[in-house]
UniProtKB/TrEMBL annotation:
<dbReference type="InterPro" id="IPR001466">
    <property type="entry name" value="Beta-lactam-related"/>
</dbReference>
<dbReference type="InterPro" id="IPR050491">
    <property type="entry name" value="AmpC-like"/>
</dbReference>
<protein>
    <recommendedName>
        <fullName>Beta-lactamase-related domain-containing protein</fullName>
    </recommendedName>
</protein>
<dbReference type="InterPro" id="IPR012338">
    <property type="entry name" value="Beta-lactam/transpept-like"/>
</dbReference>
<feature type="domain" description="Beta-lactamase-related">
    <location>
        <begin position="22"/>
        <end position="218"/>
    </location>
</feature>
<comment type="similarity">
    <text>Belongs to the peptidase S12 family.</text>
</comment>
<dbReference type="Pfam" id="PF00144">
    <property type="entry name" value="Beta-lactamase"/>
</dbReference>
Amino acid sequence: MAADMDSDAVRSRLEALCPILDQIQDNTRSASISTGVLHHGEVVLTRSRGFRDAESQAPVDSETNYPICSLTKAFTAACCGILVDEGKLEWAKPLQSYIPFRSTADPVIGERATMQDALSHNTGLAHMDLTWLGLECDYILDKEDLLGVVNHLPPVHDLRSGFHYNNYMYAVAGLVIEQQPGRPWYEFLKERILEPLAMHRTVTNRAKLPDDNVAEPHVVLDDYSLHRQKAVDTAADNTLMGPAGPDWSAQAIAQTMFGLQPPIDFAEVSKQRAKVEYERYADLAADFEYFQNKERGEEKHFNVNLEDYVGKYVNTGLKMALDIRHSSDKSLIMVVNNVPSQHHRLTHFAGDKLGFLPSSREEFVIREFIDWFKWDQFVLCFHRHEEWGMINGVAWALQNGIKPVYFKRISLEE
């Protein structure tokens, strides 16, 4: 175990691991990996490999900034811990004691859920990430609407009866943090954690960095080349949260340092997972086509008039609006929350259903369909008035395993 080893022994172990880290990077086609390891307060390894920008071939180094995504949850929890230590917050006190947290779907969650439940992903509420994270990592929800949406999240299970990862609850924790000191969470984080630890290159907003030494986001194209994506301001001051990513290399380092058993071949695991991710679009497209053909084969003759579906549809609880209209080439498109980047080209799927599966794998990865794992997330199911026969709403499966969300039609005009 690393606790029983001196720094030289730990360093030797980690240096022997470096070829495995290189394999993980190559298997996943990551543009770069930078590694730093502390052992009993001593830096025992710093290493950088790759480019912060695949186009310019600018190399990474120990000063390169990376978006750390959901690792920021540790900062949020630490901020809460500081407030608990100061007697300004209690782990087991209901959240509604601090903010107007309510659950319209399950009042028990609203009444009893605590900060401990929120931070341990144990509230029972669905994550519903597609209600805040749009394509190209654009945000489609305003921070001021956060609590209203959280209060309308459907439950996955009862309070404290199972783990369900939920980014929203960390945004809720951020609101609680802001209530206590009376200033934005990022100022509290800076003053109480970042500045005391001299973490001067750790910021919540990319614009606050003094230089451009930042690892840019990339995706893997069909030929396995890297395509640079637009920069993501992971946590701007008016942002409620940002997107996340995995890391096999950290698990390999932990296994090596602590001698975890049974040993896992993370190079092989990363290779297999990369293959699954590379083939995700093909699997989705195959399922989409299969169920489309199945439903078309089962239905009687169906006359499709795409004009029937044009209009605006809303779900007031989740603060979402769908605008289905004609594009410049007269085809149908859907725009979500009036955000230009959130547009989908619609085609007839079957019956009173329209589909919008991306036309290629490269469109799928470049536009960053991050939380899209099942074919029916790309299908809109329209409802007709039983008596009049007009379209009066649409259901959309925003999260796998959750009942499709219903949007009421409020406008028949473009």
